[in-house]
Each structure stands twice: as C-alpha cells, then as structure tokens.
Amino acid sequence: MIIKDKGFTLIEALVALVLLGIFIAIAIPTASSIFEDSKKEACYAEILLLEKSYERYLIIEGVEHLDTLFDEYLALYVEEEPCDGICDITYVDDKILCDKYFEEDEGDSGIPYL
Hints:
By secondary structure, the chain is mostly helical. The protein has helices spanning 10-61, 67-77, and strands at 89-92, 95-98. A hairpin with a 2-residue loop joins strand 1 (89-92) and strand 2 (95-98).
C-alpha cells in the first residue's frame, strides 16, 4: 500500500520562511531609500516652482530681494509649507535652499571622485 503525503514537511516550511525573511530583509531598505529619494525629488520640484514664482514676484513688483520680503512673500502667497514643512527654506544668491536636502554648495568641483 502506497501512502502519498499531501502537504509540506517541516523542513520545506522552514526553507520557505528563511527565503521570505531574506527577501524582506533586502526589500525593506531598498523601498525606504526609494521613498526617501522620491521625497527629495518632490521637495526639489517644489523649491524650483517657488523659486521661479518668487523671481516673477520680484520682477513684477520691481523690488530687490530682502530676507523680510521673502518671508512676507511666503506668508502671503504660499498656501502650504514647501517640502511638507520638513525643512527651513532660505533664499540665497538667487536660489532657494532647503536645509534638509540641499546644501548651499555641494562641493561639485567638476572632478568626480578623485
């Protein structure tokens, strides 16, 4: 009489769990870095839009940049905080900078990794 076992053995279940654990251990850090990169790119896009609109405001009003004017512009015309409020933004040398994601000078000397 032949008995056919239907189902998994304990070893097969353990192997499946180990493989699933390895997959999750690889996937979670990768997914979190993808989410962080997407937040950074979204913040950069918001800052570019804000920068262009502030430059247009300066041209239309015919005034020069002042820190107080920039703060006033943000209070009057920007409904939501840029980058979901996770960074403080400043306007320096005709650029808007986010202190969390973007430095004023990222050290780009044109020579990569020497």
